[in-house]
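From the methods appendix. Each design record in this collection lists the tokenized structure first, followed by the designed amino acid sequence. Records were kept in a plain field format so they could be parsed without special tools. The example shown here is representative of the layout used throughout.

RECORD:
FOLD TOKENS (140 positions):
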């Protein structure tokens, strides 16, 4: 046909089979760097934080602001005295349970999405948002 040579299906299949067969430890084996997909990415443990303890403002800017700066899915913004006042009345124990374990079917992710934040750093971020809103941080 028009003098165009087309590769035969058998030749293509042999080439593909040859590419897919590698023997572990052989010279043809190459390591794949990086992620193997979204599932591996979301299940990979966070890199441990090795610096000094972060302040509430630093943790807020690092993770919390992604949702709380724009009221994503109902996340109250710092400065919203009504919403944060309601939350402060629940007590610090409830606020920290929601922060650490997540809230409302993961609209608030566990640990606020900061897998490498300590409990003390997360508490500092909650206190930062409460104080920024004029709400008194609860005792318990």
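DESIGN:
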């Amino acid at each position: 046909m028009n003098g165009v040579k087309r590769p035969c299906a058998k030749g293509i299949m042999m080439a593909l089979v040859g590419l897919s067969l590698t023997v572990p430890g052989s010279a043809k084996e190459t390591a794949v760097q990086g992620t193997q997909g979204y599932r591996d990415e979301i299940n990979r443990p966070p890199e441990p934080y090795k610096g000094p303890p972060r302040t509430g403002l630093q943790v807020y800017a690092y993770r919390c602001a992604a949702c709380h700066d724009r009221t994503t899915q109902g996340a109250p913004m710092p400065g919203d005295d009504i919403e944060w006042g309601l939350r402060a009345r629940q007590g610090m124990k409830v606020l920290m349970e929601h922060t650490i374990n997540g809230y409302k079917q993961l609209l608030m992710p566990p640990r606020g999405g900061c897998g490498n934040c300590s409990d003390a750093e997360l508490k500092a971020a909650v206190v930062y948002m409460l104080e920024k809103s004029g709400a008194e941080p609860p005792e318990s």
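APPENDIX NOTE: Residues 102 and 110 are 4 Å apart (CA to CA).
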